[in-house]
Amino acid sequence: MCGHTIYALSTVYGKSGVAVVRISGKNALDAIQKMTDIDVLKITPRHAYFSKIYHAKTHKILDEGLVLYFKAPNSFTGEDIVEIQTHGSKAVLSSVLESLSMIADFRTAEAGEFSKRAFYHQKMDLTEAEGLADLIDAETSEQQRQAVLQMSGNLKNLYEGWREELLRIYAYLEAYIDFPDEEISKEVIEQNLNTVFKLKTDIRNHIQNANIGERLRDGFKVAIIGPTNAGKSSLINAITDRKAVIVSDIAGTTRDAIDIHLDVNGYPVILTDTAGLRKTEDIIEKQGIEIAYQKMNEADFILAVFDGTQSTKQIFLSLPKDIQNKILYLANKSDILTDEQCSKLKNEGCYLISAKTKAGLKEVFEAITQKIKTGIGSQNGYLMTRARYREALEECLENLDRFSFEKPIELGAEDIRIAARAIGKITGRIEVNEILDKIFSSFCIGK
């Protein structure tokens, strides 16, 4: 796969002060030789050279910029890399990329191909590569922090540790297969059974927290529910500081679920405004209410909003128990509540808010943040961020559950081998061509 020398713009295409074009492959130095005045025979790796940039065919001056050379294997991809830093005008970028296309054996990089080559040259495993992709996509500080931890090898070390334990057991079993006259001692049996039991416990605990890691990548779901005219849409507008949804005194104005993406103390949150809960004969409004119940079931947390001047949280008692367990009760219109009403609502465990004045919103977001942190708990730093990790670990568990010293040793060894292979799918320590393209195709060009 590494025959051609590839190139791509690694910064955003458009008007900018500086743009970086990255080139990787065995002929990367050809770009310097054909497009600059720098002597490639005397070039020093990791040294910045200021040079005129020429067109490889016409020799027309395209720009002036910095040129850097990273010699293999000490580069991001493990191959020779050249970076050309130019001014970021569209005209300059178009001409530089056109010039590179004129050089023999050069071609435009595919999505994620630089990182894919880094993987093949053992510069990173698949979890680190996906951590890099998450870092590029990170929009909140917690997404950034988790991506950095994964890119630094936290998950790789965890999964490779489990895999090494399984390979150790497999080696024991293979040894007894090769020497069938030797009887397996009770000590060895007990030791390996204990290791398998501990691995199964650790993997199951890790899988149980899979939802948290995926939510940290994609956003924690928070549904806003309540009766009509409780102030749900006004609350959304107060939170976003804009008219994100229509507000009206007419009951049933909100008929569909509306998603708003927020950064809540560093955590990504998807806030969903839903249709007001009431009995209605309106067909469209009925569908909106059905969607509201669907959003409640999907939500990680629910904000149940009601008019504190007229109702209490008792109006939500008819909701299923599993939904009630996820609810934070928000009594709206705290700006016009009496002291007696406020005291009563607080004693019932309600948060007092005002969609009009924004009072109490900080406390609500602090409560959401605390619930997220509690959910993450001790798994922080080892969060499973992708469904494919969970699927591979579930496959591993299935084979560990089948393992026993009571069955023929060859079959037991095969259970352990397949279990280790399943973990290897996560990090890429086995042949996994069937999943590589899917992983790296989500990367941006030039990464």
List the defining traits of the structure above.
6-stranded mixed beta sheet; 12 strands; Rossmann fold; 447 residues; alpha/beta; Gyrase A, domain 2; single chain; Four Helix Bundle (Hemerythrin (Met), subunit A)
Write up this protein.
This protein has 3 domains: 5-109, 2-Layer Sandwich (Gyrase A, domain 2); 127-209 and 384-440, tRNA modification GTPase MnmE domain 2 (Four Helix Bundle (Hemerythrin (Met), subunit A)), CATH 1.20.120.430; 216-378, Rossmann fold (3-Layer(aba) Sandwich). The protein is 46% helix and 17% strand. It has helices at residues 29-35, 90-101, 113-120, 126-137, 141-151, 154-178, 186-208, 210-218, 232-240, 283-298, 321-324, 339-347, 361-376, 387-402, 409-427, 433-440; strands at residues 5-9, 16-24, 49-54, 61-70, 81-88, 106-108, 220-225, 258-264, 267-273, 301-307, 327-332, 351-352. A 6-stranded mixed beta sheet has the order 3-4-5-2-1-6. Helix 6 runs antiparallel to helix 15 and helix 7 (186-208) runs antiparallel to helix 14.
